[in-house]
Amino acid sequence: MSDMTDVELKIFIEAVTHYFAQLTREPAAIRAAYLANGEIPHFDFTGLITVSGRYRGCVYFSTTGDALRALLAEFSEPDRREANLLDAVGEIANTIAGNARKHFGKELEISVPVTIHGVPDQIRSAVRARPFAILLTWAAHEAVVIVDLAVADA
Amino acid sequence: MAVRSMRTSYFGKYREIVWAVALFLLFDLAVLVLNFYISFQISSDALAINMAGRQRMLSQRMTKELLTAAVDNNQGIVKLSSLNDLRKTAMLFDGTLTAFERGGTIPGGDGSPVYLDGLKTDAGRALLRDARQLWQPLKDAIAPLMTGDIFDPAALSVAVRIARESNTKLLVLMNELTTQLEGVARDKADRLRTVQTVGIMLALLNFAFILFKFIARLRATDRKVEAAQQETAEILATVKEGLFLLDSSFRFGSQYSASLARILGMEITPGSDFRELLRQMVHPDMYPSTVDYINLLFGDRVKESLVMELNPLTAIEVMVPRADGSSARRFLTLQFNRASQVGRIANLLVTVTDVTEQVLLQRELAAEKKKSKTELTVLLDLLKVEPAALTHFLTNTEWTLIEINEQLRSVKGEERDYRFLIGSVFRKIHAIKGDAAALGLRPFEDLAHEFETLLARMRDKGSVSGDDLIAVPLPLDELFERVAIVRDLSIRLAGYHDAFSPRPGSEGVVDDLIDLAQRIATERGKEVQLSTDLKMLDELPSPVQASVKSVIVQLLRNAIAHGIEAAGERVQLEKSPVGGIYIALKRDEAGEYELHLRDDGRGLIPRRIKESLIESGRYNAEQLAEYDDKQIIMKIFDPGFSTAAVADRDAGHGVGMDVVKQKLHDLGARLRIVTRENRYTQFVVRFAV
Predict the structure, then answer these.
(1) According to the model, what pLDDT value does residue A120 have?
(2) Residue of B nearest to A135 (CA)
(3) Residue B401: per-residue pLDDT
(4) Which residues of A touch B (CB under 8 A)?
(5) Could you tell me the residue range of the domain that residue A30 belongs to?
(6) Average pLDDT of chain B?
(7) Residue B477 and residue A9: Cβ atoms within 8 Å?
(8) Is the pLDDT of residue B7 over 60?
(9) Which pLDDT tens digit goes with each residue over B412-446?
(10) Which residue of A has its CA nearest to B361?
């Protein structure tokens, strides 16, 4: 069987869906789950966490600027400049990290989020030939969570 | 025993010093004793000198008292008190002289009795003899004066005369006696001084020896201790393992190896509580048993070697902080060995070893073993497969997987889209399973079966949402991986394949079908005999051939799983216990191909199909009443239909006939089914190329 189970995969996704369900009026829905066979799907704003320990690799959360602006509007945050949008995407990545820490405990060491605007080289598969891609929709906006993790010693 | 031997060893170690100290004490004691003795002697001598001096004084007093008595007598006066004084003086003089001669107790200077030793020296004794000779006449002359109260003037004048004659001589003798006694005393004092000086000198020499020896030994010991400390420090600085001592109250010892901080990723404070570290290292559930284990080692009821295997701190996984603030996963083993002191377990020597590399290697080895086993299974399967067929299978499968992935990616968010997606993926995976089974590629067949089971659960649970889809990419990825592994293996095998007699085209397909039929029949406790006429397969273009093979495989699985009865049942129906299946591909005059697949099993029975449809909940009896038998039979091509009670990898998911329907659609084929209860079922597929 696979080195990672669907239950473990869900831990990374649930953090995001839970975040939207708790903090906004509209929950985020999973539209599709597939293998990023080739180019890694991404949007303008990306929050990235790197993982070591039992698994190694990266987890990304990527979405559009519009989605983040809409999110800030939900929080009644008037400042919609790029730095604030990056903060918002970083916060979601941090939520993923927090949920993973809660479930995996000491087994995983998770970095602080790195936020990226645009499409730099950093967004590429690191450990899996085909990272897991989960497409989300929230209030007509699109987002994606990429889980590119493999068992560290396998 | 240990105590005794330790004492012996201490004595052995310090023997010289112990002897020297004993000698020093002996010297001091000897000087002390001698001091006492000579002091006593000097005290005796002082008494003798004193008494000799008194004799001198007494001799003169006697003369003075006699002369005074004579003067008084001349004047006609008799003083009895003066005579009494004379008597006392004479008696004291005589007693003292006797004591000097023979030793004896006499009144001392203050009147209290003192013992005076007799003189032993020859010169002294000669003096005494002379004194006695002088004194005796005087004593005799004085004696009448000392009896009662009668005074004899004649006796007095005799005594005065003798006194005058001997007085000076007696004084000189007593003077000499005094001088001689003083000389003896001085000699003794000199001797004492010499003895004391020698004794003290010896004692000092001895003391110097002790000091020298002791300092030399101390310095030697210091050097040894320094060398030992240096060695210990070097060992502790160099040793790769983390070493420290743990006392019975779980406190860290004062010394530990330099590696310890590196291995643990933190500095250790000597005297701090080891349990604090332990709490960070082990899971809370494991913590109490770990403490119990360590306590067990501090007790002496169990043998260390026996409980070694129970050590819960073997290859424990910990996150060790790194210098840059991040942390690294490490596997540590903490080994505990008793360190005894005087027969008591005072400390445990704890050896902390970083076994990360070993653990990872072991895991890698286990993973490699598993991988090798899988590869070997695949390899053995591959050896049986015709290379062209395998390549075709791998290409087809990979394309199918890419197609599935694309479907997963592009699915719209509606439930009916998800349901359609699941059905479509199911058919594709089932087809891969069928193809894999036909080629005898078990690892693919098993993976596809697991994938199917997952999809079946999703399909049967009623509603499907996006959340459910998260699980789908996992088995898909595994199939991708498997394709890559097998492709790699097949390339490696290509060089060897010529060595095995390859079976060309349809012959290979027939062999694979026979193997598949036998396997399915055996697993279900049935017996089948397959007869084929499939030479024409070779004429078909590759994609058509693949579709036809898929149809054959699915119909064959279905025929064995559902059509052919078990041997016992067949015998009761007066049929051969071995089920017969015939598969043929023919071409008619019009150039159309006809695929025949006929089994002599129980036939397609509309009544049983109806029952299954009602049981599945898809239809109710009223709805089915509207269909004729032919329509009912065609329901076997509905997605999800199955008459099998339990799903296994050959039947039960209700997908096989769904795949057939899809493939027939792809081929643009027409299907005819002829069946008779308990006799046969025949599928005839007509298609043009």
Answers:
(1) 66
(2) B409
(3) 92
(4) 1-2, 4-6, 9-10, 13, 29-35, 37, 52-54, 106-107, 109, 111, 128-130, 132-135, 137, 152-154
(5) 6-151
(6) 84
(7) no
(8) no
(9) 878 888 988 999 999 999 999 998 988 888 889 98
(10) A153
3-state helix, strand, coil in chain B (%, to 5): 65, 15, 20
Kindly report, residue by residue over B77-116, the tens digit of the pLDDT: 877 777 788 888 888 999 999 999 999 999 988 888 988 8
pLDDT, tens only, B599-651: 999 998 888 888 888 887 778 888 888 888 888 888 888 766 666 555 555 55
Helix pair angle (B473-497, B442-460), 10° resolution: 160
> What burial letters (b/e) apply to B383-406, b meaning 16+ CB within 10 Å?
ebbbbebbebbbebbeebbeebbe
* Predicted confidence band of residue B520 (pLDDT cuts 50, 70, 90): confident
**Rounded Cα distance, B66 and B145, in Å:** 10
Domain-embedded: residue A50: yes
Q: Is the ipTM of this complex over 0.85?
A: yes
Q: Which domains are seen in chain B, by residue range?
A: 12-213 (1.20.120.1730), 239-354 (3.30.450.20), 360-502 (1.20.120.160), 503-689 (3.30.565.10)
Long-range contacts of residues B153-158, Cβ cutoff 8 Å, at least 24 apart: B153/B73, B156/B66, B156/B69, B156/B70, B156/B73, B157/B70
Q: What share of chain A is helix, strand, coil (3-state, %, to 5)?
A: 35, 30, 30
> DSSP H helical segments within chain A, as ranges?
6-23, 65-74, 82-104
Residues B596, B583 contacting (CB under 8 angstroms) = yes
Distance CA A143, CA A24 (A): 15
Distance CA B398, CA B484 (A): 9
Asked if residue A1 is part of any domain, the answer here is no
A132 CA: distance to closest CA in chain B (Å): 7
Beta partners for residue A34, in sequence order: A133
Here the CATH number for the domain that contains residue A119 is: 3.40.1550.10
Q: Does residue A48 fall inside a structural domain?
A: yes
Report the number of distinct structural domains present in chain A: 1
- Tell me whether residue A91 is in a domain: yes
DSSP state of B273: B
